[in-house]
Specification:
It is built from 6 helices and 3 strands; from the N terminus they run H-H-E-H-H-E-E-H-H. By secondary structure, the chain is mainly alpha-helical. The chain has a 3-stranded antiparallel beta sheet. Strand 2 and strand 3 form a beta hairpin. The C terminus is likely disordered.
Length: about 160
Amino acid sequence: MEGKPRPAASASDAISAMDDLIATSIVGQQEFARNLGLSVTDLICFAYVLEAGDSLLTAGDLAGRAHVTTGAVTGILNRLERGGFVTRRPDPADRRRVRVAAVPAAAERVRAVYEPYYAHLAQLFADYTPDEVAVLADWFTRAGALARAYLEASCEGGSSAGRG
């Protein structure tokens, strides 16, 4: 496949386009969450649970990833459990801790909401050569790592203590 001609762009143009994508994505996440009967933070936490797969996360893991307090994550898990999204299981290594598992039917509900959007994204990626997709994937991976590192460094040294 031969790549399509692309308009010239500066780093400033790319950052502006990224900002627009992020803003639109935030609005989209709010709509997806609303359609599922969740808050955006609850949906993000459920996404982390899904991403973990069989490596079940602890409540503390979720609190750290979502940058909320452990008290706040308890409320999030209560809502997700009441909504049928997750179950809590005792940690076999430490019975005082719980691990969080996704309910398969809830995972399917979330996939059903996202699949049409992902199909459109797949069509968009089809306009790019494999080498261009590799560059995009590399950029997204590296930008994600940079964003996580910046977030950790700029939020009280990564501590979520005192925030809720």
